[in-house]
Structure to design on (226 residues):
C-alpha cells in the first residue's frame, strides 16, 4: 500500500517560522511535491524535491531525505494569508501521478 | 494563459441519479487527471489520461464511474448511479507530461457534488 503521514493541524504566530513534516511509505519514489489549498480553492503547486536536500522558493523551502523517507515544508515570515491546508504528494512512478497525504491545516494567528 | 476550466461548479442530485462533469485543461497539456477530494482529506486520483489514452484508472469505481477524453483535449467524468458516499469535490488537473525534473499539476476550481 501507499501511505503518507503529516500532522493534521499546526498553529503558528504571524511572522514566525513553521515546519510541516511528511513521512512516506510508497511502492516507488520519484519525488516529493507540496501543494497549498485555501478553503474552497484549488490546490496550487509550491515546490518539488527529486533529490536530497533543500529547495528554496522565496519564503518557502522544502527538504527531502530519501534514505529516511522524509521531507518537510518550511514556511518563514508567516503571513495571515498562509492559513491554508498543505499537502505533501509523492510521485510514485514515471507516469507523473501523485499520491497525496491527508493534509496539514495551518492556522496563522496575529 | 487561461487556467483549467471546470463546470459546473456545484451540483446537487438525489442518490441513484446520474451526473457529468466537464474539464478543459490548459492548452498544450498532454496529461489530464481527475481527482476526488472528500472533505478533510487529500485529493485521490481517479483516472489519468495521456493525450486521449488512459494511463491509470486503478482507483476508478468502474461499476459507476466513467471518463473519456476523446480528442485529447477536454474530458468528461460521469457517475451513474450516484451514491451518498460520492459527495465530494471533483478536481480536474493538467500537466505538460514531459519528462521534466518536476511536473507541476495545475488544478481547476473543482465541482462540489452533493448527493442527497
Amino acid at each position: 500500500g501507499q501511505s503518507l503521514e503529516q500532522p493534521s493541524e499546526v498553529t503558528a504566530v504571524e511572522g514566525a517560522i513553521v515546519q510541516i513534516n511528511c513521512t512516506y511509505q510508497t511502492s516507488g519514489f520519484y519525488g516529493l511535491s507540496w501543494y497549498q489549498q485555501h478553503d474552497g480553492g484549488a490546490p496550487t503547486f509550491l515546490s518539488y524535491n527529486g533529490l536530497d536536500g533543500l529547495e528554496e522558493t522565496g519564503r518557502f523551502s522544502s527538504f527531502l531525505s530519501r534514505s529516511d523517507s522524509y521531507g518537510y515544508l518550511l514556511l518563514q515570515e508567516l503571513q495571515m494569508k498562509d492559513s491554508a491546508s498543505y499537502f505533501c504528494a509523492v510521485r510514485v512512478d514515471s507516469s507523473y501521478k501523485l499520491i497525496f497525504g491527508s493534509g496539514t491545516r495551518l492556522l496563522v494567528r496575529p | 494563459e487561461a487556467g483549467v476550466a471546470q463546470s459546473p461548479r456545484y451540483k446537487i442530485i438525489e442518490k441513484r441519479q446520474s451526473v457529468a462533469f466537464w474539464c478543459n485543461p490548459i492548452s498544450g497539456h498532454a496529461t489530464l487527471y481527475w481527482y476526488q477530494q472528500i472533505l478533510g482529506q487529500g485529493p485521490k486520483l481517479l483516472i489519468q489520461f495521456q493525450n486521449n489514452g488512459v494511463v491509470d484508472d486503478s482507483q476508478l469505481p468502474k461499476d459507476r464511474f466513467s471518463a473519456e477524453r476523446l480528442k485529447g483535449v477536454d474530458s468528461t467524468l460521469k457517475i451513474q448511479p450516484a451514491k451518498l458516499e460520492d459527495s465530494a469535490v471533483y478536481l480536474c488537473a493538467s500537466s505538460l507530461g514531459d519528462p521534466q525534473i518536476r511536473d507541476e499539476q495545475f488544478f481547476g476550481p473543482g465541482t462540489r457534488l452533493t448527493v442527497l
